[in-house]
Structures are given as C-alpha cells and as structure tokens.
Amino acid sequence: MKRSSSSSLSKSASSSSHEEEHHQHKQQIVHDQQKNNFIEYLLGHGEFSTDVVDQLTGMVSLDQMSAVISTCQELNNADLTLYVPPNEWNDGDDVRNIITIMTATPTTKWIGRIDTSKVTKMKLGEKWNTDARPTVVTDAWLRFIASGKFPSLTSLDLSSCNNITETGITELVRGYPQITTLDFAECDWINDASLNAFSSEFTQLIALNLSGCDITDASIHALSTGCKQLTTLDLDFCHKITDVGIIALSNGCEQLTSLNISNCNNITDASVVALSNGCTQLTSLDIFRCDKITDTSLDALRQSHPQIKGWQYSSRF
C-alpha cells in the first residue's frame, strides 16, 4: 500500500509540474506577443531607431509596457522641446553630437524638439587638435544648417573641417547672408581657387580666420575686392603671403581694425607703410616673427596710429 501511495504522489507531482510548465509557456507566449506589439508601436509611432527600441524593451518589464506606450504616444503628440542649446554654442563636441542626431532623422517630428532658433554663434570645428578633427562635418551638414534651423546664426567656426568644400560654404552663406564671422583655420581645402570662388558671396563678412591655410597674395586680393567690410583678419602662418597681398588689403579693406600677420616671414616695411596709409582705424597688429619688418616703419606706424593696443603680441615690442 505504501508503494501505491508513493506512486500516486509521484504522478500527482509530475502532473502538477507539467501544468506549471504549460502555464509558464502560455505566459511567455503572451509576454512575447505584448513585447512584439510594444516594439511595433515604438518603431511605427515613436520614430525611434532600432537600437533605442532594443534598449527600451530590455529595460521595461511586462507590467510597465502599457504605461510606456501611453507615455510615448503623449510625448509624440505633445508640443515638447527636449533641448535648447546656448545662444553662443561653443562646445564643439556637443554641437557635433546634436547635429548628428538632427541630420539622422531630418523628416521626423523629433527634429523639431531641438530648438536652435536662437543660436547666434556655433562651433563645428576644433583648433590645433589632430585627435579631435571634426571629420563628420560635410557639405550635407552645411546644407542642413542653411535649411532654416538656425535663423539667428551670425558666426560659424569650421576650423579643421576638411570634409567640406566651397560649394557647401557658398550654399550656407546664400542661405544665411547675415553671417558675419567665419573661422577656416587649418582648413586644407582653403586655397586661392576656393577663396576666389566665394569671396564675392561674403559681402557682409566682418571677421575671417584663415590661419594655417595654404593661400597666396591672390586670395588676399580677392578678399580686398569682395569683402570690403572686413574689420578682423587672421593670417597667422600663411607663409606665402607677401607685401603685394597686404598692400591690396590696405587699399581694399579700409575698415580693418585687427590684423594678425604673425609668422608671415615675407612681409617687409612696405606692408607696414601701406597699412599706415590705408587702414587708419587699425587698433591691433600682430607681427610676431615678421623678421623683415624694421623699427623704422614701426616707429612711423606707432606715431600715425597711437590707438594701436596690440603691440604686446609682437615679438618686437
């Protein structure tokens, strides 16, 4: 009798175990179905990427899914701003990360949740840091920026952005003619041909950085005829520039107040004389390592331009 009782108990336990497994299997089917519905909703209505959906479904439990779906729907329908950058957006990493997101989903509602309408100054580039060269910046990015998302933009830093061309820059300036400040420092694509191509488009430009660019006097001549409103120009390490270019600059850009020609070792006294005669509003001049300039021309410039305060940047004073 004991054996029969033991056998009966064993069968009962086995049956109970099978029922439990069957119940768990049914629950798993329901869970999988609800999870699939959740994934389909996020992909179809939330406008998330598949990577984001994978992360969400891995984090959210079964009993939380309906609440998340409801929240996603409300967020999707709401007039919600997720991010407002500073007016002077000078964190290059942050700028590039956000624009990467914006250009990845240009036709979705989520792009409107990033409000860049008040950005006046933006840094896409990086100076003097080869490890952080912004290779992600392309002409496609410039076209996106020019499409209307940055209506207040007046200053743009593109230093070391070497995957763009004069075509992208021209489209940008035509889209935003109010841009008055551009930084092209260390841009390998900047040369005489590119500057000649778009200098006529930059009629409102007041500040330009060309430090480290491979340009000659031809570029400076193009600027002097196309960018007559220039007040600030940086030509540091533009080794090929000579007196010919600086004389053209002094004749064409009479509103110049700040000029950096440091490390331009082909510049002589002739340039200083031309600046003295043509750029009467000059207040800052950097001539560091311009070894062909003598004290004679500098003394004359000091007397004619007592307002110059930038002498401390020169190796000669």
Describe the structure.
This protein has 317 residues and is an alpha/beta fold. The protein folds into 2 domains: 2-77, no CATH class; 88-313, Alpha-Beta Horseshoe (Leucine-rich repeat, LRR (right-handed beta-alpha superhelix)), CATH 3.80.10. 47% of the residues lie in helices and 7% in strands. The chain contains 11 helices and 8 strands. The chain has helices at 2-46, 50-59, 65-77, 92-104, 139-149, 166-175, 192-198, 217-226, 243-252, 269-278, 295-304; strands at residues 88-89, 121-123, 155-157, 181-183, 207-209, 232-234, 258-260, 284-286. An 8-stranded parallel sheet has the order 1-2-3-4-5-6-7-8. α10 links the parallel β7 and β8 (284-286). The protein starts with a helix and ends in a 13-residue tail after the last helix. Residues 1-6 and 312-317 have low confidence and may be disordered.
